[in-house]
Amino acid sequence: MSKPVVAIVGRPNVGKSTIFNRMAGERLAIVEDVPGVTRDRVYSKAEWVNQEFNIIDTGGIDVGGGSLFQQMRHQAEIALEEADVIVFLVNGRDGVTGADEEVASLLFRTDKPVVVGVNKIDNLEMQMDIYDFYRLGFGEVYPVSGSHGLGLGDMLDAVVRQFPAVEGDDYEEDTIRMAVIGRPNVGKSSLVNAVLGEERVIVSDMPGTTRDAVDTVFERDGQEYAVMDTAGMRKRGKVYENTEKYSVMRALRAIERSDVVLMVIDGEEGILEQDKKIAGYAEDAGRAIVMVVNKWDAVEKDDKTMSRFTDDIREGFQFLPYAPVLFLSAVTKQRMQHLLPVVKEAADNHNLRVPTNVLNDVIVDAVIMNPTPTDGVRRLRINYATQVAVGPPTIVLFVNDPDLLHFSYHRYLENRLREAFHFEGTPIKIIARKKS
Ligand code: GDP
Ligand code: GDP
């Protein structure tokens, strides 16, 4: 998974490049007392308290012509696009300028965390000069001196604190990490409790790598599972903002950390638009997905209810034809016993490795059954297939021209692979590459 990205933004000459070089940990002798000749690199790796990340010096990005303001704006926009955390650098000697306010107004439009660094605070006497910058409206401001290397530690602590948690938890590789997601009140917490009620809990309330989740680790039939409870946090009265945006962000982080996503739907209410949006994130992230229709005890049923609901799910989540659907009740525990076996199977499929020769046999057979498409002149030729990754299984096809692999044939091949290898519960990626 990719490292967090930190972008440094600010008007010209506040010291972006100087700070960048400090953060890059290299005292490259590039900073001279001549504005504009200070940089030779724009991206660098950096590390702080064992956290690796990438930094971008947006001031060094050539955004073409335009006025200084236009350039600054483009640079800030790139930062907003690319970065996980933005360092907004200002010059402590100048106080807040109109150009600073211009940058601030751009940064206000993002949800991304902004850390204000007040540069050129070269000695303690100058500390008073930083207070003006609180009115930029980004909370705490951090005095630094790029040329003297002062204050950077505190600023970087603040930056690192804002990193989204992605990877780096301490679980064994074969621990299955489950994220339970869904709209408020569909029964996520009840489901987590129902699962844990039946299992031998190894660690409870293990702090996750995010501020937003608490993990519990348990074992079933020799398999270790970690369940991330994002909803339970709120019930313990910890930090929680009851906005949709915030809960979506928490769901996203849980998804990023998981192997299998349990997408919980309220059986009484049916499928809502918000359910689709949340499931879409899990799909984008390439996670295995199990659909859980909860509160099945409260649904009035006849012998067709389940198949009708399944049809609704297939219709509503057309992008997830491979996700198994489970109907259960977290409260009465009805059908709960099916959950973990389905999760385990989805996780196994997510990590399935297909032998290359068998994979190529399936592709060759598929092509015989249904010849590859042409563009009227040339026909798609698949020379060779190989699996390059798991989690999700990712298959590269070496072809004469990737543009000839149209959507419908892509879909056809995916279906054949699913029939052959039983990838239930997991997305699979098929990538066409030009044979070199
Ligand atoms: P950028 O254009 O915003 O990237 O700014 P630079 O890093 O090129 O710095 C602009 C000028 O400010 C250069 O002359 C630097 O030597 C100077 N400068 C950078 N950081 C500091 C600092 O902490 N204190 C002082 N006094 N000057 C600095
Ligand atoms: P969360 O916000 O998604 O974590 O949902 P909760 O677990 O807090 O449940 C919301 C409400 O739905 C609570 O009143 C639960 O008692 C109820 N609920 C949860 N699971 C079930 C279920 O399986 N059947 C029924 N009838 N109610 C349930």
Automatic annotation (TrEMBL):
Q: Does the keyword Amino-acid biosynthesis apply?
A: no
* Gene3D superfamilies linked: 3.30.300.20, P-loop containing nucleotide triphosphate hydrolases
Q: Which UniProt keywords apply?
A: GTP-binding, Hydrolase, Nucleotide-binding, Repeat, Ribosome biogenesis
The entry lists its GO molecular-function terms as: hydrolase activity
Q: Which domain of life is it from?
A: Bacteria
Q: Has UniProt tagged this entry with the keyword Membrane?
A: no
> Which family is it part of?
Belongs to the TRAFAC class TrmE-Era-EngA-EngB-Septin-like GTPase superfamily. EngA (Der) GTPase family.
Function (record text):
GTPase that plays an essential role in the late steps of ribosome biogenesis.
The protein's matches in HAMAP family, at most eight in alphabetical order, are given as: GTPase_Der (MF_00195)
Protein name, UniProt field: GTPase Der
Originating species: Salibacterium lacus
